[in-house]
UniProtKB/TrEMBL annotation:
Signal peptide: 1-20
Alphabetical UniProt keywords: Signal
Membership in a protein family: Belongs to the UPF0065 (bug) family.
Superkingdom: Bacteria
Protein name: Tripartite tricarboxylate transporter substrate binding protein
Pfam families: TctC
Length: 314
């Protein structure tokens, strides 16, 4: 037992020494979406602050690998060498929802969870010209004519879709769900009065206050971006859903490197400049590190799996 303990201590010391110069080459952050989108912008903003937090002239390079709703990028990260030089952005619940509705070469256990960075709660929102001024009014209309109330979504199998399904269950209603190719198209259709309501992340309503009326935020507390808007829970509907965006590494990252990266992200939690940059995009900084992040991912996976089991979307 003593020999084994000494060997473990020696191995840990050697590992720490071996990775003392990390990073000594650029760290690639794989983004499974096109340049210019919300996840891509997040990766580039966070990347420059991560460089400073790691120090020693660290360099972070973003590599876009769009396609299949992010699956190509997520797979690329899962299959990369776990040496600390490949990280990936990770979108919850979408990244793990993909593993239920199709064949995927990864699952929740394919990654080391470094840190979540942003939590962007979903909303129920209508146009300013809508006759609905509260969530209760909306639900009453949905109950009066089941299936007639059209709800715009960015896509199926993501936080928008899950928000609608969870609200249907909580309120005992049936919506007419209409998926689009992206949140901006769903928002445009909503503002044009072609659908009755939309569910989208709160950040996607920021800057459109003259055109949109947010009826509810699907979070456990009100948002500082919309302090006058009540949560769904406040209005009697126990629904929470949103978009979580963070960073993962391939499974098997050496402990010393994982600790180094986690420490760097913890440092970002107190960075006022990063907080301001994210706020300008309508995003709230929400650093969740290591095992806490893993548990968050597993909880989101469980929600997606349960919805898929009872209401498969493909």
């Amino acid at each position: 037992m003593l020999k084994r303990t000494l060997a473990t201590i020696l191995l840990s010391a050697l590992s720490a020494t071996a990775f003392a110069d990390y990073p000594d080459k650029p760290i690639t952050v794989v983004v499974g979406y096109s340049p210019g989108g919300g996840t891509d912008v997040l990766a580039r903003v966070v990347g420059k602050y991560l460089e400073k937090a790691l120090g020693d002239d660290a360099s972070v390079v973003v590599k876009n690998q769009p396609g299949a709703g992010g699956q190509i990028g997520f797979t690329s990260v899962a299959e990369a060498k776990p040496d600390g030089y490949t990280l990936g952005t990770f979108n919850l619940p979408a990244a793990l929802a993909l593993t239920f509705d199709r064949h995927a070469a990864y699952d929740a256990d394919s990654f080391d969870y470094i840190a979540n960075v942003v939590h962007d709660p979903n909303t129920f929102v209508v146009s300013r010209n809508s006759p609905y001024h509260s969530l209760d009014e909306l639900i009453e209309a949905a109950k009066a004519k089941p299936g007639s109330l059209s709800v715009a979504l960015a896509s199926l199998g993501g936080n928008d879709h899950f928000s609608a399904l969870l609200m249907e269950a909580a309120a005992g209603v049936d919506f007419n769900l209409i998926p689009f190719e992206g949140a901006s198209m769903a928002r445009t259709t909503l503002m044009g009065g072609h659908v009755a309501v939309g569910t989208m992340a709160l950040s996607q309503t920021v800057g459109f206050e003259d055109d949109l009326r947010v009826l509810a935020v699907l979070d456990d507390q009100r948002s500082s971006y919309a302090p006058d808007v009540p949560t769904a829970k406040e209005q009697g509907y126990d629904v929470e859903m949103g978009s979580y965006r963070g960073f993962v590494a391939p499974k098997g990252l050496p402990d010393a490197l994982e600790s180094r990266l986690e420490a760097a992200f913890r440092h970002l939690a107190d960075n006022p400049d990063l907080r301001r940059e994210l706020a300008a995009q309508g995003n709230s900084l929400d650093i969740v590190v290591g095992e806490d992040y893993r548990r968050l991912a597993e909880a989101q996976s469980d929600i997606a799996g349960d919805l898929w089991k009872h209401q498969p979307w493909k």
